[in-house]
């Protein structure tokens, strides 16, 4: 460690790589923490966890018994075993006994991204409530047409305060806190929407994954989605290759080929329509039916005809990387796919998951610098993968039932996971600070002056 | 055709060499080469190419395999595909083309991302074709394009014998659809438009294709079809039953593990495919794992 500090001083390694080296070492030694513990007040499986985005200090959890609780991650409420184990009890909780509390399970609890004064919970009782943290009162209520599966707010929104809610209804609703009303709905999915995620590069772009297996990209300023991810459109590598001109066979097969390689589905659907008109061999009855069907739909809504699926089952989890370039999606076909956002293609990185639970949404998390993905896989195993190789670096076993969420705190390199066994577990890097300092020195200690 | 002839040669050679009496006619040539290959396979995935050459030459002893490996210029996935195709068990009753499951590829090549990417390249070059199966969650079958086209021709011939009319739809299918649509599924309108390139096409023609077994409707979406391999329905049932049988065989043991050598001698009652096929498939899909011990490889059920 001292060697590394000296290198940084002399400029041999950059300060970024210096910090990353320690972070990676700490993350790779993650284990169930023997110094920190959350005392979970929940009496149902914990469905959602989030650390607040401003300070990284407060952890919000939502559970299936309709209770939401807030914990302080950095300061413990009391200590046990003569100060060695820190117990963190919840600061407050809102549950069914609360006069405005949710009646059924809470599926998603998120912080207001600007400060910790508000938090938002979405529940299976069809309500989405906005709470004031300091008084623990529900400030605004939104009634949804179906069970709320997931809610999300954009962390980089400068001009809007919209909450995107994915419900069992096919439409994604955007709720505005400032006015207390729905601003608009996004339609295009053909089944319930299980996961919603805002983009980390633009405040107007929303990604949603549905139970029909499709992932759609929406620009909320326009009607209809502008991209539907298709798992058969692939690219081999981080960035798409330079486009080659494909050999033109028959007119229609060239159109079909361009639709395979094309990036904008709207354009290809329209060109397919014109292509079918121009080819003589096509049965005219079919072409006219297609034409008339497409004529009735607004051009922005042509994407509803696009049936490409990103997964063979429902899309249960979505996570965009912090640099805004890639999107991870987990599906109930037990596959995790990494998508390049710019080109909309599947990068074909194979993540070796066992099985992922199919009935509930799961929460994935990513870490930037050692580029890892934390995925809750079925019962008890929580796996950390290298993002580009897809290999499992760590298997963390500690939960008694299936794990629902992972939340990574990059400030301390700690991982919080929650599961159906009602527990919130903390995984922290093993070893103490003294061990880290001493690690390199043992090799350096050479007695080269003795005979 | 080449493989058939080589098998006859190797059959005699191994018949003389083998001391144990495994006189099961169907799988004898493959199973005797497979034992030695199986042991070596676990150590080094890249040496798989030599078995391919062993079957072809027939007279090469297994020790001389190693230097031949340097001459092979396949990528790893390609080598694994050809080797597994050569080892496909011969089932005499039905004419089934040799196919490889994707989970078998995952278990025989180390890096799964590399497998995915190389498979994608092979698919784009039209060397292989990938089909989605309806057994289990994420099963895909990989078939060499030549084998698939042979199977389609066999079906057409059979339908000709039954005096079916309108058979040029199959030619259109092969020429236009198979050539341009490389994914495992196709939409109704796209299918019609691609087939129409060769003439007028009615819904009745599509029914003919479905009856022949080349297309199946998707359960979720009435407008989409999966491509399918004709006359293999009984095989998929056998596949899932064979998997269950093999897993229950190992689960019944006290410590839920078995020696691989012992496992290979067993014969499955419900599946026409042999144990070697199923073991590769189960390792790749994460149900089993292999552990190296001092007395050989052990296969263990993976708890999760």
TrEMBL record, chain A:
UniProt-listed PROSITE patterns: WD_REPEATS_1, WD_REPEATS_2, WD_REPEATS_REGION
Extent of the WD repeats: 99-141, 186-228, 308-349, 396-428
Keyword DNA repair among record annotations: yes
Keywords, sorted A to Z: DNA damage, DNA repair, Repeat, WD repeat
InterPro entries: Rad28/ERCC8/Ckn1/ATCSA-1, WD40/YVTN_repeat-like_dom_sf, WD40_PAC1, WD40_repeat_CS, WD40_repeat_dom_sf, WD40_rpt
SMART domains referenced in this protein's UniProt entry, alphabetically: WD40 (SM00320)
Region (Disordered): 269-298
Pfam family, one: WD40
GO biological process, one term: transcription-coupled nucleotide-excision repair
Biased composition (Low complexity): 271-287
DNA-binding as UniProt keyword: no
Protein name: Transducin/WD40 repeat-like superfamily protein
Organism the protein comes from: Arabidopsis thaliana
Source taxonomy: Eukaryota, Viridiplantae, Streptophyta, Embryophyta, Tracheophyta
From TrEMBL, chain B:
Domain of life: Eukaryota
Annotated region (Disordered), positions in chain: 20-50
Transmembrane segments: none
PANTHER family the UniProt entry points to: SERINE/THREONINE-PROTEIN KINASE 19 (PTHR15243), SERINE_THREONINE-PROTEIN KINASE 19 (PTHR15243:SF0)
Family of this protein: Belongs to the STK19 family.
Name recorded for this polypeptide: Serine/Threonine-kinase
Organism of provenance: Arabidopsis thaliana (Mouse-ear cress)
């Amino acid at each position: 460690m001292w060697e590394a500090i000296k290198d940084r001083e002399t400029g041999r390694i950059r300060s970024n790589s210096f910090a990353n080296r320690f972070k990676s070492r700490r993350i790779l030694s993650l284990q169930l923490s023997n110094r920190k513990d959350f005392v979970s007040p929940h009496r149902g499986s914990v469905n959602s966890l989030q650390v607040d985005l401003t300070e990284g200090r407060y952890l919000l959890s939502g559970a299936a018994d309709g209770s939401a609780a807030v914990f302080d991650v950095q300061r413990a409420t009391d200590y046990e075993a003569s100060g060695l184990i820190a117990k963190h009890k919840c600061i407050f909780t809102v549950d069914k006994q609360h006069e405005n509390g949710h009646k059924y399970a809470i599926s998603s609890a998120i912080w207001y991204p600007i400060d910790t004064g508000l938090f938002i919970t979405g529940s299976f009782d069809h309500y989405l409530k906005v709470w004031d943290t300091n008084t623990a009162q529900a400030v605004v209520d939104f009634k949804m047409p179906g069970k709320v599966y997931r809610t999300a707010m954009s962390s980089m929104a400068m001009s809007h305060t919209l909450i995107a809610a994915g419900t069992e209804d096919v439409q994604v609703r955007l709720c505005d806190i400032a006015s207390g009303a729905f601003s608009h709905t996004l339609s295009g999915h053909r089944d319930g929407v299980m996961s919603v995620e805002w983009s980390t590069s633009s405040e107007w772009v929303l990604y949603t994954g549905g139970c029909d297996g499709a992932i759609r990209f929406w620009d909320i300023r326009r009607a209809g989605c502008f991209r539907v991810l298709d798992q058969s459109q692939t690219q081999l590598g981080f960035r798409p290759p330079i486009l080659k001109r494909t050999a033109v066979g028959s007119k229609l097969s060239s159109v079909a080929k361009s639709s395979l390689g094309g990036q904008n589905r709207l354009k290809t659907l329209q060109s397919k329509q014109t292509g079918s008109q121009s080819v003589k061999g096509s049965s005219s009855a079919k072409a006219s039916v297609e034409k008339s069907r497409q004529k009735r739909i607004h051009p922005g809504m042509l994407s509803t005809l696009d049936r490409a699926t990103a997964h063979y089952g429902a899309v249960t989890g979505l996570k965009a990387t912090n640099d805004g370039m890639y999107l991870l999606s987990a599906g109930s076909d037990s596959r995790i796919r990494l998508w390049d956002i710019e080109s909309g293609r599947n990068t074909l990185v194979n993540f070796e998951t066992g099985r992922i639970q199919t009935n509930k949404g799961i929460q994935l998390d990513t870490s930037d610098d050692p580029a890892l993905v934390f995925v809750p896989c079925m019962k008890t195993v929580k796996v950390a993968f290298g993002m580009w190789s897809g290999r499992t670096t760590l298997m963390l076993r500690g939960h008694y039932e299936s794990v629902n969420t992972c939340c990574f705190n990059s400030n301390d390199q700690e991982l919080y996971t929650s599961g159906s066994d009602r527990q919130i577990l903390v995984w922290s890097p093993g070893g103490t600070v003294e061990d880290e300092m001493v690690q390199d020195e043992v090799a350096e200690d050479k007695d080269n002056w003795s005979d | 055709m080449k493989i058939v002839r080589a098998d006859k040669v190797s059959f005699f050679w191994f018949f003389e060499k083998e001391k144990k009496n495994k006189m099961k006619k169907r799988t004898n040539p493959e199973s005797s080469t497979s034992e030695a290959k199986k042991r070596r396979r676990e150590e080094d995935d890249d040496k798989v190419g030599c078995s391919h050459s062993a079957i072809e030459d027939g007279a090469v002893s297994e020790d001389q395999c190693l230097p031949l490996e340097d001459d092979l210029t396949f990528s790893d996935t390609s080598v694994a595909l050809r080797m597994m195709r050569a080892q496909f068990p011969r089932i005499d009753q039905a004419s089934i083309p040799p196919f490889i499951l994707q989970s078998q590829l995952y278990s025989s090549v180390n890096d799964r991302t590399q497998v995915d990417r190389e498979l994608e390249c092979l698919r784009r070059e039209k060397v292989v074709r990938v089909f989605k199966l309806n057994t289990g969650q994420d099963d895909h079958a990989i078939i060499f394009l030549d084998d698939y086209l042979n199977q389609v021709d066999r079906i057409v011939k059979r339908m000709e014998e039954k005096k079916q009319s309108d058979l040029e739809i199959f030619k259109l299918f092969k020429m236009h659809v198979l050539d341009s649509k490389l994914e495992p599924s196709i939409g109704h309108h796209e299918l019609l438009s691609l087939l129409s390139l060769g003439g007028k096409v009615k819904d009745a023609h599509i029914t003919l294709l479905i009856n022949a077994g080349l297309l199946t409707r998707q359960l979720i979406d009435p407008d989409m079809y999966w491509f399918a391999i004709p006359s293999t329905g009984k095989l998929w049932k056998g596949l899932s039953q064979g998997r269950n049988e093999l897993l229950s065989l190992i689960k019944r043991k006290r410590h839920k593990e078995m020696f691989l050598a012992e496992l290979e001698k067993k014969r499955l009652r419900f599946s026409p495919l042999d144990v070697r096929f199923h073991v590769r498939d189960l390792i790749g899909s994460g149900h089993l794992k292999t552990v190296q011990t001092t007395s050989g490889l052990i296969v263990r059920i993976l708890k999760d």
